[in-house]
Design a protein that fits this description.
The protein is an all-beta fold and 273 residues long. Helix content is 3%, strand content 54%.
Length: 273
């Protein structure tokens, strides 16, 4: 009996200080509960079957409201509630922003043997974001990744990924991305259009971008956070190596899921910390 919910940010973090309020159809509050350290709400209050409104609030986040049905067993399973950071409906203040590699990550996931995933990341990269002051659609981002910085936690595998079968880092030492435009895709989401150069091949690539908010840092600066995802096909970048194992299953999947968690500092350079 009661109510269960899980409160998360756009980038998947638990909102431990969230408050869930439930009102009936007359607007009368019938339940109030706080999320635990995992962002989970488990309240055992017995509710009368029917329709209710569930309101979730948290300091620093935009409130959200949704409908819920309490079953005959007195249970309401709200599921996951995603909160957007306040200010997320607009881009950060205009001007230059410098990507902070120490507080950012570029990860990639590939399927292995058709049953599991191999996770990797690039450890050496830099980038710059320019937020336009007049037309947001003309905002720009440029990033450069050292191809040789690929790290999957296995030296033998990393060596193979750096070889001509894949990234061919000696011939193509850098992976670059340059945006060509930005279009809104939701209240705090954007589509970044651009060109990705990898393995000597240039392809148009769109990033699904979530703006996570802006805030002050301990060193007197201002930081903005973003999360972006994209799925790439290896063959689009002339990386056609594969080994087929039993039942025709490829050892390595043909697609690559890329996840970017980016923190940028306002200004042309990073602070000395």
């Amino acid at each position: 009996m009661g109510l269960t919910a899980k409160i998360r940010t756009r980038d998947g973090w638990a909102v431990s200080h969230a408050v869930v309020t439930v009102t009936d159809m007359t607007g009368t509050q019938v339940l109030r509960a706080e999320a635990d350290t995992d962002g989970a709400v488990h309240d055992t209050t017995t509710l009368t079957p029917g329709a209710y409104t569930v309101i979730v609030t948290a300091v620093g986040y935009a409130p959200t409201a949704s409908s819920a049905i309490v079953t005959a067993a007195g249970r309401a399973e709200v599921g996951q509630v995603t909160l957007a950071r306040q200010g997320g409906t607009e881009l950060p203040p205009p001007g230059p922003w410098t990507i902070d590699p120490a507080h950012s990550s570029i990860g990639a996931v590939a399927q292995h043997l058709g049953i599991s995933s191999v996770h990797g990341r690039f450890t050496d990269f830099a980038g710059r974001i320019e937020i336009a002051s007049d037309d947001v659609a003309t905002s720009r981002v440029e990033a450069t990744i050292s191809a040789a910085s690929i790290d999957t936690g296995n030296g033998l595998r990393d060596g193979h990924l750096k070889s001509p079968d894949f990234l061919d880092v000696e011939k193509y030492p850098h992976i670059t991305y340059r945006s060509t435009g930005v279009t809104p895709a939701g209240s705090d989401r954007w589509t970044v259009h651009g060109e990705l150069t990898m393995h000597g091949v240039v392809r148009p690539v769109d990033l699904a971008l979530a703006y996570l908010g802006t805030g002050a840092d301990p060193w007197g600066g201002t930081r903005a956070a973003f999360r972006a995802t994209v799925e790439l096909r290896r063959e689009d970048f002339a990386m056609n190596y594969n080994q087929v194992v039993q039942a025709g299953i490829s050892a390595i999947g043909t697609t690559l899921k890329v996840e970017l968690d980016i923190q940028a500092v306002q200004g042309e350079s990073l602070p000395a910390v």
